[in-house]
Amino acid sequence: MNLNALIETSGEWLRGGGPESDIVVSSRIRLARNLAQFPFPIRASDAVKAEVSELLCNRLLDLDFGPQLYSLDVGDLNEVDRQFLVERQLISRELSDGVGPRCVCISREENLSVMVNEEDHLRVQVLHSGFSLGDTWSQISELDDNIEQHVTYAFSDRFGYLTSCPTNCGTGIRVSVMLHLPALVLTKEIQKVFQALQKISLAVRGLYGEGSQAMGDFYQVSNQVTLGKSEQQIIENVQEVIPNIIAYERRVRNKLVSENRRNLHDQIARAYGILRNAQTISSEETMHLLSSVRMGVNLGLIDELEMATVNEMLIQTQPAHLQKLRGEDLQSAERNVARASYLRERLTGDFTG
Amino acid sequence: MNLNALIETSGEWLRGGGPESDIVVSSRIRLARNLAQFPFPIRASDAVKAEVSELLCNRLLDLDFGPQLYSLDVGDLNEVDRQFLVERQLISRELSDGVGPRCVCISREENLSVMVNEEDHLRVQVLHSGFSLGDTWSQISELDDNIEQHVTYAFSDRFGYLTSCPTNCGTGIRVSVMLHLPALVLTKEIQKVFQALQKISLAVRGLYGEGSQAMGDFYQVSNQVTLGKSEQQIIENVQEVIPNIIAYERRVRNKLVSENRRNLHDQIARAYGILRNAQTISSEETMHLLSSVRMGVNLGLIDELEMATVNEMLIQTQPAHLQKLRGEDLQSAERNVARASYLRERLTGDFTG
């Protein structure tokens, strides 16, 4: 698979469709699995990892299941290409920065990705746009069953699926929903959401998962417990709480519009103005401003922009994407200039300087 | 004269022509004069002031001199109209806020204005765009001679022209040049200019003269001494120093362009973007951003804008101008919205909200 082909398209999950897509960017489920016959990656030699990688890659590419998968040998990729896959949420930082034989199998639409030799032998992921945990679960469950027909998973009757880290043991499932909550952040109500989620053992993380900062008002809500509950129960836990957060964000947006429309519009219009005019801009500021613009599109305060375009710009302005788009390595200051050019081109059709 | 007619036009001095107009906005000379036969305004009763006002108004309107003058009874004007004249630099804050009979005679082109019963009986002013103290002096000198043919000025062989405040005594002249010095402000080199001017007894003030803050990087340089030197010497003092400040500002602009073009362009482009998109904006921020845009026009970093438009916007976005344009009294928050609308309309042709 040619990585450069990916830059021309954007993953299905970015196209901005799906239920509640004004607030829910994407729904994601991942399963941690290991093969019974091999030491887990954290204990395996490179030779064993190579064997596992080859075996799993072959099995995955041969699956008689929905979309065709393509494999990428992550160890063969340069740093920019690896970072590019991280930015697209197709691989984790851990797989990107890891050592030894490791690969990822991806579907053309980018909904499916299976990492091999990350922390576990297999990290199976399905990603959909909008709030659609049901579809996401159906697809990952089917994929998981298909894989299990060709390999033997490490499974204990007592502990369930066995994983490198005990926190993933049991179902091995992580259910995450990526939310865009600008109004709750603006009004500082977001703290109440964090507290409520903590009480029911749900975690809140930034755009790029564990350890990442929340940027541009994007938050991932996910389960922490994987043991002692069924997959359905865990999904339901998340599924039940998300509509409350959506309703809360909508309520606060409506309140802002009805009580302070002018200032809200001002903030959004200025953000849009800066994005269309800046000559150099950091990734952080871009996320921050695009977040305002995204809310503006949702509230009908910006007419001429599609949500899908905003979502795409959020990813395309990340460092590795910019470098792939430009076809050259760029230092941080050069990226800031390239980012500003890209934004002006996308938002005004003007491509100067 | 109908004040509303003025709003449709802009004074000659705003049209952005004249020598060195990239840096010198305008050249201004004013003369303080009093009539020998009447107590000075600070000691005069309202009856005397009324007599002086009528007498001088009649004389001024009858002058057989260049442009026809029109008179405005300042005491008759409401607060917005008075503030409007202050913003156009046709009258001083002192005349606007004063009490008792007082008036101003103005030429249609707004180059000439004669205040009656400000601190002195007469404050004669000539204002030209760009750096043109020579023309300004010729015109005010001719006007002064013309007036003197019809009245007797209070004059002492020892002290020269007598004035209410001793600091104006002698020549009664104030020569001011309004400079736009954004690069010197940006690099903090402006402090050196202040120090140098102080040493040669020249004063630096903001846009609206004495006591006003420098806004948007606009500074008025003027003489402090009026006694013991001839008018020509005083004008020469200012005339000689201004080219050095112009050269200094140009040098620093060129340095910024050659060493840090990207960041300078970024600052200017963002300012332009905010002005074209904001939904509410204060007078202070507007001045600040227009200052960047003005430099951008001069440096060729903004193509589609005329300097005259920028100069005009600096005045038209002032509180009283906005209210005259809208034809209604507006509170501060309403003015901020009206100002943003006006700027969007002027800069993008878009007039919504």
Brief summary of the model shown:
Two copies of one chain form a homodimer. Chain A is an alpha+beta fold and about 350 residues long.
Runs of chain A in which pLDDT lies below 50 for 5 or more consecutive residues are none
Order of helices and strands of chain A: HEHEHHEEEHEEEHHEEHHHHH
How large is the count of helical segments of chain A?
Answer: 12
Question: Average pLDDT across residues of chain A?
Answer: 92
Q: Strand pairing plus helix content of chain A: what structural class?
A: alpha+beta
Please, what is the oligomeric state? homodimer
C-alpha termini separation of chain A? 34 Å
How many beta-strand segments of chain A? Answer: 10
Helix content of chain A: 40-55%
Round the Cα radius of gyration of chain A to an integer and report it.
21 Å
- Strand proportion of chain A: 15-25%
Most extensive interface: A-B, 18 and 18 residues
Order of strands in the sheet with the most strands of chain A?
2-3-4-5-1-8-10-9
General description of the model:
Chains A, B: Keywords: ATP-binding, Kinase, Nucleotide-binding, Transferase. Chains A, B: This is Protein-arginine kinase. Chains A, B: Catalyzes the specific phosphorylation of arginine residues in proteins. Chains A, B: It catalyses: L-arginyl-[protein] + ATP = N(omega)-phospho-L-arginyl-[protein] + ADP + H(+). Chains A, B: One of its GO terms (molecular function) is creatine kinase activity. The structure is a homodimer of 353-residue chains. The first copy, chain A, is α+β, with helices and mostly antiparallel strands and 353 residues long. Chain A has a domain of 94 residues. Helix content of chain A is 47%, strand content 16%. Chain A is built from twelve helices and ten strands. Chain A has an eight-stranded antiparallel sheet, with helices on one face. In chain A, a hairpin with a 3-residue loop joins strand 6 and strand 7. In chain A, helix 9 packs antiparallel against helix 10. At the A-B interface, helix 8 of A face helix 8 of B.
